[in-house]
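Dear Dr. L.,

I hope this message finds you well. Following up on our conversation about the binding site, I have prepared a predicted three-dimensional model of the protein together with zinc ion. For your records, I am including the exact sequence and ligand specification that went into the calculation, followed by the structure tokens. Please feel free to forward this to your student if that is useful.
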Amino acid sequence: MIYNEEFETLPREVLEALQLKRLKQVIQRVYHTVGFYRRVFDEAGVTPDDIKTLDDLKRFPFTTKQDLRDNYPFGMFAVPMSSVVRLHASSGTTGRSTVVGYTKRDIDTWSELMARCFVAAGLTKNDIIHNAYGYGLFTGGLGAHYGAEKLGASVIPISGGNTKRQIMILQDFGPTAICCTPSYALNLAEQGKAMGIDMKALNLRVGVFGAEPWSEQMRQEIENLLNITALNIFGLSEMMGPGVAMECLEGRHGMHIFEDHFLVETINAETGEVLPPGEEGELVFTTITKEAFPLIRYRTRDLSRLFTEPCRCGRTLHRMDRVMGRSDDMLIIRGVNVFPSQIEAILLAIEGVEPHYQLIVERTGNLDTLEIQVEVGEQIFSNADEVKVLQNMERRIVKDIKDYLGVSAKVKLVEPKTIQRLEGKVIRVLDKRRI
Ligand code: ADP
Ligand code: ZN
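The resulting structure of the complex is given below.
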């Protein structure tokens, strides 16, 4: 089944004509309303009139996460705040998080795209959707929520956490679908089992999982443990949130990208050169309908590849492979995006902490754990109140990491020179997760 039969199955040439028309409009609009774009287009020697074909987009400069940080919080908005009806932010309350805004029409578009995702997963208004994506500043919860309502399904806005209660609701309300991160789905399955509940006998039929990388093996495991069909959904706040691309039941090979709203390219992450379909590279997206927060050639840092072969479902939208990694050092811990540099900034703001630290990420059971090992200055160990001082420092770090980044970490303070250095350099991240 297809939610928007007309737009999801356009003949490619009609779709491309529509894309070109929309691209011209958005390039014009950002040039005239966003100071940043006027500047970088001028610097690159391009003007909106240079867009004659879709291929001309290549001549325009990329937008990076750093650009968004430099224009924090609202500098990239293309409409006045009076037209913005919603704000979201990706990880953290520090000045480094990414703030995104939506007009009423942007919210409508996003809701429709999420509704398209649910229909691609075989859902209808008769379904009950257990939405365990986090509600709040993250886009996951509200994004899926609005999509479910748009479809007319019954949504349970359970949000994340409180796993025992979630399991009770799964049993009592009998939802037919669940949305959450894939690792949380495994966690629910295992905790339920440990509580003596037959998780395969629940009413669940399908799961829409995303916001973090997962593998084919994880899919198998989730499908077996919960007796459901598990589908992959992709998105990022900068584009709008979840619902940029979604697998269909028929294909289950790559996620259809909603190309009537987003243009996609894959590039060589080092050289910036545009790659042909099928080749692995960094995904770059351009929004062509967004009003409040349009982005031109946004570098996602997500590595994937594009499939252009037709799909059995009838959608003509190209597909992207599951995300295979990142071209930067961003970690996703329990669905929360964390950059080592953010942790570093928090650590270094604390007196007595040395700039030598290591982040150890593991998956215990199905939950990601983060341990921060950090060296503290010599003088602390010669302090009479050594133990107390260390305890306070540890507590402060745990609290600051939780407050600013929203992740729980275990902190281990170590003596100077304890953390191994290779060629003088500390290995900042040890990601031991086998996903
Ligand atoms: P979200 O709330 O959708 O996670 P964020 O902006 O916080 O939005 O995070 C977006 C990032 O999450 C993406 O750039 C990508 O790295 C990761 N991500 C989202 N969906 C998936 C997915 N299905 N598979 C792998 N990674 C994903
Ligand atoms: Zn398909």
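In brief: The two ends are 31 Å apart (CA to CA).

With kind regards,
A. P.
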